[in-house]
Write a structure and sequence with these properties.
Elements: E1 5-11, H1 15-32, E2 38-42, H2 46-52, H3 58-66, E3 69-74, H4 89-99, E4 104-110, H5 123-126, E5 130-136, E6 144-152, E7 155-161, H6 166-182, E8 186-191, H7 197-213, E9 218-223, H8 224-233, E10 240-243, H9 245-256, E11 266-273, E12 279-285, H10 302-314, H11 319-334, H12 353-362
Parallel strand pairs: 1-2, 1-3, 3-12, 5-10, 8-9, 8-10
Antiparallel strand pairs: 4-5, 4-11, 6-7, 11-12
Helix pairs in contact: 1-10, 1-12, 6-7, 8-9, 10-11, 11-12
The structure holds adenosine-5'-triphosphate and magnesium ion (MG).
Pathway: Amino-acid biosynthesis; L-leucine biosynthesis; L-leucine from 3-methyl-2-oxobutanoate: step 3/4
Main location: cytoplasm
Function: Catalyzes the oxidation of 3-carboxy-2-hydroxy-4-methylpentanoate (3-isopropylmalate) to 3-carboxy-4-methyl-2-oxopentanoate. The product decarboxylates to 4-methyl-2 oxopentanoate.
Length: about 375
């Protein structure tokens, strides 16, 4: 059998810096855990535009469709701010998501004990928090037609349409239930069925899929506004949350702030299973290209490293190895290792991107 394949698109800004640490960890897995990966590297974003005049070359797109998983760093930067919309770095990422049909966006909100004082909430509300928000990523109000701004009578009207088909709801619901079976068997579905037709259908379809295919999983429903409140009041009541594109956008950003720094947050975007049974998959840190700290060795590589841990778990069936990597991160944090973004107001001396990588490898 051939080795699992990975396409690495480090991108712009701090992308290559944080990805460098992940590449060392991937090499470590080959050397020390007998888990070799076939790694290909390519360009996305501004660096691809510089070379090819497009933020994502067709060859790169084709490669992304073939591999078991794509690992992405970050795209964009001030150098590209004035580019035409059609070739902006972010379009490279959007094309990947669209053509790979990555409809299920997984955003964990996990609070490492050593960083619990970093949260915008009190320590006891967030310490030990480990929840997962599953956001529908390819449909809903951001894509629905009709849309646009037109004139009615003597004023302008802005229109967007929230639209969900049954199959779009069903596939993201299944991905949430599958995830729940690998975690704690608990899903909370959020919509606003009280005021939105798409919400009524969302609740119906999630309930039907649950009854027919996943009755072993505990399912609850919540209006998304109440969900937002509960998320900051008592987030540990949740395990997996599944919701639509718009509510997921808001709820996952709110959940992110429960856990502290942007430099800590990984994500996965999953599509339908490929011929080998693995889902199409793209893993990336939540943070952007951070031009303000690029090239200074200050970037925290943990978000990117934890994104690779998600790849181990969801693409390569290596949950125990993902646990091992996450435990190493937890240990170095407990030992006091801090990149600059993880230093509180009381300060301290930060370590560099590479030193953080060293510490995690050693652990
Ligand atoms: P984008 O538009 O690509 O989402 P953004 O401007 O919203 O980018 P980031 O590029 O993520 O956001 O940067 C926001 C802030 O967080 C910056 O001050 C940046 O330096 C900091 N930051 C982001 N990622 C990291 C990281 N991995 N380590 C340290 N600081 C980070
Ligand atoms: Mg941003």
């Amino acid at each position: 059998m051939s080795n699992p394949s990975l396409l690495i698109l480090a991108g712009d800004g701090i992308g290559p810096e944080v990805m460098n640490e992940v590449k060392r960890i991937i090499t470590w897995y080959g050397d020390k855990r007998d888990m070799p990966f076939d790694v290909t590297e390519d360009l996305v974003g501004g660096c691809a535009y510089d070379k090819h005049g497009t933020p994502l070359h067709d060859d790169t797109m084709a490669k992304a469709q073939e591999v078991d998983a794509v690992l992405l760093g970050a795209v964009g930067g001030p150098k590209y701010d004035d580019l035409d919309f059609s070739v902006k770095p972010e379009r490279g990422l959007l094309r990947l998501r669209k053509e790979m049909d990555l409809f299920s966006n997984l955003r964990p909100a996990q609070c490492f004990d050593a960083l619990a004082d970093f949260s915008s909430l009190k320590r006891d509300i967030v310490a030990g928090l480990d929840i997962m928000i599953v956001r529908e990523l390819t449909s809903g109000v951001y894509f629905g037609e009709p849309r646009g701004i037109h004139v009615e009578g003597n004023e302008r009207v802005g229109v967007n349409t929230q639209r969900y088909t049954e199959s779009e709801i069903a596939r993201v619901a299944r991905s949430a239930f599958e995830l729940a079976r690998r975690r704690n068997n608990k899903v909370c579905s959020m919509e606003k069925a009280n005021v939105m037709e798409s919400g009524v259908l969302w609740r119906q379809v999630v309930t039907e899929i649950h009854e027919k295919e996943y009755s072993d999983v505990q399912l609850s429903h919540m209006y998304a506004d109440n969900g937002a409140m509960q998320l900051v009041r008592n987030p540990k009541q949740f395990d997996v949350i599944v919701t639509d594109n718009l509510f997921g956008d808001l709820l996952s950003d709110a959940a992110a702030m429960l856990t502290g720094s942007l430099g800590m947050l990984p994500s996965a975007s999953l599509g339908l299973p490929m011929a080998n049974g693995r889902p199409k998959a793209l893993y990336e840190p939540v943070h952007g290209s951070a031009p303000d700290i690029t090239g200074q060795g200050k970037a925290n590589p943990i978000a990117c490293i934890l994104s690779f841990a998600m790849a181990l778990r969801y693409s390569f069936d290596a949950g125990a190895e993902a646990d091992r990597l996450e435990a190493a991160v937890e240990k170095v944090l407990a030992d006091g290792a801090r990149t600059a973004d993880l230093l509180g107001p009381e300060g301290g001396s930060p370590i560099s991107t590479t030193e953080m990588g060293d510490a995690i490898l050693a652990a």
